[in-house]
Amino acid sequence: MSTPVVSAAWLFEHLNDPHVAIADCRFSLMQPALGREQYQAGHIPGAVYLDLNQDLSNPVGEHGGRHPLPDVAQLSKKLSAMGVDSTPEAQTLVVAYDDSRLAFASRLWWLLRYLGHDRVTVLDGGFAGWKAVGYSVTQAVSAPKAGAFVPQLRSDLVVGIGDVKTRKASPEVMLVDSREAERYRGDHEPIDPIAGHIPGAVNYPWQGVTDADGYVLPVETQRHRWHDLEAAHELLVYCGSGVTACVNLLSLELADIHTGKLYAGSWSDWCSYEED
User: Fold this and answer.
1) pLDDT at 271 (0 to 100)
2) What was the pLDDT predicted at 87?
3) One fold for 5-132 and 155-274
4) How is residue 41 annotated by DSSP?
5) Measured distance CA(251)–CA(172) in Å, rounded
């Protein structure tokens, strides 16, 4: 099973599979404690909570954006405690879910691939979709497990500001801004100190990957979405802080386009240098 997306029905059938680990990635940028509170109030049985700020990001610095990539050793330790095994003969399938149209689940999906673990997928429809079909939730916290996650970093999947500056003028490279159109245009900037976008970037808002309920649009729709960019040799994808850009990277995977790379610091990193 290698599809980037699974249904609630599939997950329900595999809840007791020892080779499946479930990650609850619910989070709110405006209320950072909300996701954990939601997890404690009820989650999919067997799920472990992974916090965007504490588990899936490093602390914020002067540069690097609002959600720098996490410490590899710490995240690997957390994944091992979830029971995630990276050995080829017993690789664990990680299923990530949220309640934000895959915004945070896709971050974990991308991170695991970055760490060399391809057996990862996101839950179509998220937590709301799980509840909508009547599957049970629990408040029980899963006990730590004895996984053995050993990262094999794929540094070619990520770029920094230097890479963006040197490559973005190439006719074979396209820079993709994943934020909402009004933020891309600079009409409205609710988070970062400077409005606008990186010169040369085209706008593909991440919300176009799913419908309003968080269900992934059909594969043919994903392919059509990227039709104008599929000839590019490299797609450098960014958003505000390297989180929702991962939804677009998931879309590219669904479209069978494998040229996407994450500008991890994204606009929040770029404009931190603009302020200097």
Assistant:
1) 93
2) 86
3) yes
4) H
5) 20
CA angle 228, 69, 177 (to 5 degrees): 25
Give per-residue burial for 32-66: e unless 16+ CB within 10 Å, then b.
eeebbebbeeebbebbbbbbbbebbbbeeeeebbb
Q: What b/e sequence results for 201-238 when a residue is b if at least 16 CB atoms lie within 10 Å of its CB, and e otherwise?
A: beebbbbebbeeebbbeeeeebbebbeebeebebbbbb
User: What is the domain partition of the chain in residue ranges?
Assistant: 5-132, 155-274
Query: Is residue 239 annotated as part of the catalytic site, yes or no?
Result: yes
Catalytic residue among 25, 239, 246, 271: 239
Instruction: Look at residue 275 in the predicted model and tell me its pLDDT.
Output: 55
Q: 48: part of which helix (H) or strand (E)?
A: strand 48-49
Amino acid at 112: L
- Amino acid in the structure at residue 87: T
- State the Cα–Cα distance between residues 95 and 107, nearest whole angstrom: 12
**CATH superfamily membership of 155-274:** Rhodanese-like domain (3.40.250.10)
Cα–Cα distance between 147 and 58 in angstroms, integer? 23
| pLDDT score of 47 | 97
- 5-132: CATH homologous superfamily? Rhodanese-like domain (3.40.250.10)
Average pLDDT per run of 10 along the chain, which is 276 residues long? 88 95 96 97 98 96 94 97 89 96 98 97 98 97 88 97 94 97 94 93 98 97 96 96 98 96 97 75
CA-derived radius of gyration, the chain: 18
Is 83:53 a contact under the CB 8 Å cutoff?
A: no
Does the pTM of the predicted model rise above 0.90? yes
